[in-house]
Amino acid sequence: MTAATARLLIVGPQGSGKGTQGVRIAEALDIPVVSTGDIFRANIKQGTELGQKVTAILDAGDLVPDELTSEIVRDRLSQDDAARGFLLDGYPRNTVQVEHLDAFLAKTGAALDAVILLDVPREESMARLSLRAVEQGRSDDTDEAIAHRLDIYENETAPIISVYAERGIVDRIDGVGSLDEITARISDALAARGIAQRV
Ligand code: AMP
């Protein structure tokens, strides 16, 4: 049975591969990926007002203020293509943002259907991020910023997992393996919840 909606969140430390897996899963389900990091980076590249506001914050590996971030997500999720579902990547990132998202979704009687937690050991994340720094030259991929972002993940983002676990919607997925293996693990977990491929 195919669920009527697929409102998903993918969580994991930076370097867990959540961006790559998120795109694969969203394509299979024919839903848009909503990545706050991508939205911020696109704005920085285009030199928008928002981009100018957040450049220094991203470079330092700090979090953009909650209200500003939540406003951007609310706008994006209000677009037509997100009506049937979406895959959030990078938001919510702390418990305040969980409350903002809950309040927004509740207005239409909606809620997240599943939270995919990609489990990757810290050393593996660090190694993958250092490689990405070399390959993509991201300005927030310095060793210092990477370590800072992993600390923020452990202190601020990891706690949101227990909030969602209490709701029984978290699927913990082993994030070590080949890309295809990991995608298959996620697809199986979602299928077990009645969220099946559409394309
Ligand atoms: P990401 O691509 O998800 O690793 O995000 C890159 C950067 O964008 C983060 O280090 C933060 O500076 C900022 N960012 C992304 N998502 C959020 C969020 N939900 N709340 C605050 N800042 C965010």
From TrEMBL:
It comes from the Bacteria. Residues 35-64 are annotated as: NMP. Keywords: ATP-binding, Cytoplasm, Kinase, Nucleotide biosynthesis, Nucleotide-binding, Transferase. AMP binds at T36, R41, D62, L63, V64, G90, Y91, P92, R93, Q97, R138, R149. The keyword Transferase applies. It catalyses: AMP + ATP = 2 ADP. GO terms for molecular function: AMP kinase activity. Pathway: Purine metabolism; AMP biosynthesis via salvage pathway; AMP from ADP: step 1/1. Its EC number is 2.7.4.3. PROSITE patterns: ADENYLATE_KINASE (PS00113). It holds the Pfam family ADK. InterPro entries: Adenylat/UMP-CMP_kin, Adenylat_kinase_CS, P-loop_NTPase. ATP binds at G15, S16, G17, K18, G19, T20, R132, G177. Catalyzes the reversible transfer of the terminal phosphate group between ATP and AMP. Plays an important role in cellular energy homeostasis and in adenine nucleotide metabolism. Consists of three domains, a large central CORE domain and two small peripheral domains, NMPbind and LID, which undergo movements during catalysis. The LID domain closes over the site of phosphoryl transfer upon ATP binding. Assembling and dissambling the active center during each catalytic cycle provides an effective means to prevent ATP hydrolysis. Belongs to the adenylate kinase family. Monomer. This is Adenylate kinase.
